[in-house]
Amino acid sequence: MTDSSEMVEMFDKRALRREDRRDFFRSFGVAAAVAGGAMIATKSSPLIAQTAPAITDADILNFALNLEYLEAQFYLYAATGSGLPNDLLTGTGTQGAVSGGRQVIFTDPVVAAYAQEIAADEVEHVRFLRTALGSSTVAQPAIDIGSTPTGAFSTAARAAGLIGPGATSFDPYANDENFLLGAFIFEDVGVTAYKGASPLITSKVFLEAAAGLLAVEAYHAALVRTVLYAKGIETPSAMLIQATEAISGARDSLDGTTDLDQGVANIGNASNIVPLDENGLAYSRSAGQVLNIVYLNNMMTDRGGFYPAGMNGTIRTSAAN
Is 303 within the bounds of a domain? Predict the structure, then answer.
């Protein structure tokens, strides 16, 4: 089974049942375009205040969908060699293509199995959000998941000091370890994005859905962090633990002066698989801070990095740090 659509259909059978999703939305009774009627703009979210005085639940879910497009494409290409089918790419705004991406030749069967599972989950997230949004769904924007020297992954790796300047590139599809580091770039950001968005969602039904998405992303992040930690302990010369610290530092350099990130290096005598604040809580990022990271820019902008033409939807401008 090599066709991408068939592979995605296979994934669909092992995750949320479509009939369950239909029941979910029938019980809610309205599409996101209606549910988004409650409008909010809070002081705690400067990006929202800057770009749209009235943000709806649909705007927030579309912001999440943009992120899920990116993750789904990365994991699908890594696991199967193909991306999302065309029927999961359409919507309002300019539909963009995916640059780069290819199948990883995994040597560790555990990592290969994890890649398949996470890819299936991310496809379901795209399906779920598109169903929730209905006619308000945004199209997939242009996405860069390639490994060219000037591409987003190489730019992120260069900012973290994992590769040198010039024509050097970082290839997240080269081996198991590079794939895990590529996944590490995304997963922690996804957790903080959903946590930061949760207070802004007015519909309890959508809030419950966002909590479910956050939980899955947290499982993914912990899995990736655990494997990187274990491989780093097993083979210290691979410098995997140090690489996570470097990526964490690079993310923190983009999203402002507050420390909202951690690698997997030990804290005292304990591992650091779960990044937490002083209260034992997961970190939160505003939409603007999330965009700083995925655009790979600490200034206010509406495009760059993994989204060369920017995200689709209302929430698309990064914070000015």
Answer: no
- Give 139-186 as a DSSP string: PP--EE---STTSHHHHHHHHTTSS-STT----TTSSHHHHHHHHHHH
10 Å CB burial of residue 149 (0-12, 13-18, 19+) is: middle
Q: Each residue of 242-268: b (16+ CB within 10 Å) or e? A: bbbbbbbbbbbbbbbeeebbbbbeeee
Q: How confident is the model at residue 53 (pLDDT cuts 50, 70, 90)?
A: low
204 part of a folded domain: yes
Q: Label residues 44-73 b or e (16+ Cβ within 10 Å = b).
A: ebebbeebbeebbbbbbbbbbbbbbbbbbb
Q: What is the rounded distance in angstroms from the CA atom of residue 255 to the CA atom of residue 195?
A: 15
Q: Which domain holds residue 230?
A: 4-23+47-294
pLDDT tens per residue across span 89-108: 999 999 999 999 999 999 99
How does pLDDT run across 140-176, given as a tens digit for each residue? 999 999 999 999 999 999 999 999 887 799 999 999 9
Domain count, the chain: 1
* Segment 295-312, tens digit of pLDDT: 999 999 999 999 999 999
Q: Report pTM.
A: 0.84
Q: Is residue 111 part of a domain?
A: yes
Examine residue 320 and state whether it is found in any structural domain, yes or no: no
